UniProtKB/TrEMBL annotation, chain A:
<protein>
    <submittedName>
        <fullName>DUF1416 domain-containing protein</fullName>
    </submittedName>
</protein>
<dbReference type="Pfam" id="PF07210">
    <property type="entry name" value="DUF1416"/>
</dbReference>
<dbReference type="InterPro" id="IPR010814">
    <property type="entry name" value="DUF1416"/>
</dbReference>
UniProtKB/TrEMBL annotation, chain B:
<feature type="domain" description="Rhodanese">
    <location>
        <begin position="154"/>
        <end position="274"/>
    </location>
</feature>
<keyword id="KW-0677">Repeat</keyword>
<dbReference type="InterPro" id="IPR001763">
    <property type="entry name" value="Rhodanese-like_dom"/>
</dbReference>
<feature type="domain" description="Rhodanese">
    <location>
        <begin position="18"/>
        <end position="125"/>
    </location>
</feature>
<protein>
    <recommendedName>
        <fullName>Sulfurtransferase</fullName>
    </recommendedName>
</protein>
<dbReference type="InterPro" id="IPR051126">
    <property type="entry name" value="Thiosulfate_sulfurtransferase"/>
</dbReference>
<dbReference type="GO" id="GO:0004792">
    <property type="term" value="F:thiosulfate-cyanide sulfurtransferase activity"/>
</dbReference>
<dbReference type="Pfam" id="PF00581">
    <property type="entry name" value="Rhodanese"/>
</dbReference>
<dbReference type="InterPro" id="IPR036873">
    <property type="entry name" value="Rhodanese-like_dom_sf"/>
</dbReference>
Amino acid sequence: MCAAPKQGGGLAGIDLSTQTVIQGQVWHDGAPVAGAYVRLLDSTDEFTAEVVTSPEGEFRFFAAPGEWKIRSLSAVGRGERVVSADVGLNETTVAIA
Amino acid sequence: MSRTDVLVTADWAQENLGAPGIVFVEVDEDTSAYDGGHLEGAVKLDWKQDLQDPLRRDFVDKSAFEALLSSRGIANDDTVVLYGGNNNWFAAYAYWYFKLYGHSDVKLIDGGRKKWELDGRPLSKDAVQRPATQYTAQDPDLSIRAFRDEVVASIGSKNIIDVRSPDEFSGKILAPAHLPQEQAQKAGHVPTAMNIPWSKAANEDGTFKSDAELAKLYDEQGFDESKPTIAYCRIGERSSHTWFVLRELLGKSDVKNYDGSWVEYGSLVGVPIEK
C-alpha cells in the first residue's frame, strides 16, 4: 500500500482524466540510472513521496495539479527539476550532473 | 533507553553481520527489493503477507506471530536488527510491532536500505535459512497502540500528530504521491491534529536527525510535554517512524501509534474532520 510499486511499465488501468501523473527517467552520462532514489517535493519543498527507479531509470508519481520539485539522489550524484503539472500525463527527465 | 540502545549505524551493522545472537531482518512491502539483494544473512518479513491478518484488517494474532518468528529462526533472546526501504517506514512499523508483542532487544539500522545502497555497501542474493526456533510472544502491549474511539475522544485534549505530508494533511491529495489517488475515504485530518511530517525527522539519506534537532522540531510545532500523544498517518507505517522518534529516541512517555490511521478515520461515519 505505501511501499513503492514497481516503476515503469504502461499506463493501463490509470485514469488520466482524473489522475495527475508525473513520470520520466533519471539520466547520467548519456544513460538511464537504475536504482536512483527520486523524491517529489511540494511547493514548500516538503517531502511528498519517494520511489526507486526501475532498471530503465523510470519513476512515476500520482500528484495533483500544481508546482512540484523532483529531486534525485543516487550513488553517482544528485539532480533536481521543477515541474508544473496538470491533470493527465506529465513527462520529464531528471539529469544527474 | 538511549539512542544507541535502539539505533545502530550501517558500519555497526556491517561489522556484526553473521554475529551469533543477532538476527538481521529486512522488512518491505515490495519484497522484490530483498530478493534483488539483501544484507548477508538477513531474513525477510513481508509487511503485508507476514504481518497483516489475511482476512480482517488487523495484525496477525499472538500465535501466528509466534509461528512466524519461529519459522524465520528468531529466538526470544536474539537481538533483532531491522532495516528496510522507504526510509525505514516498514522497518519502524515492524519495530513497533515487535515491541507490541514484547520482544525485548530490537534495533533499527539508521538510514535503512537506502543509506546502505547509497554507501555502496555489499548486498547478497544468497538464500537465507535459519534453524527454526520455539518463539514465545507476550500478549499485545496496548499501551502503545491507539484505536479509533480513543482518537475521537482525544480531539482537543492530547497531542495528535498527523505525520503525513502537508498536501495529504490539507486534503489536496489522499495518499503518498507514489500511489494512485483514488480512495474511498474523505480527505482532511483529525481536528486539532498537528501536522509534523515524518520526513522532518529524517535526513535525505534516510538517517534520523540528531536528538537535539528532533527535540527542537517537536517543541517548535507545539508538542505539549504534559499530554499523552497519538501519531497517525494513512495506514500506520509512517506514524511508526514518528512513534519511534518520540518514544524510543526522545524518550517521551505515553506515545501511541494509531495504525488504523486515515484509511480508517476518513471512512468513519459521523466523526469530525478538518481540512
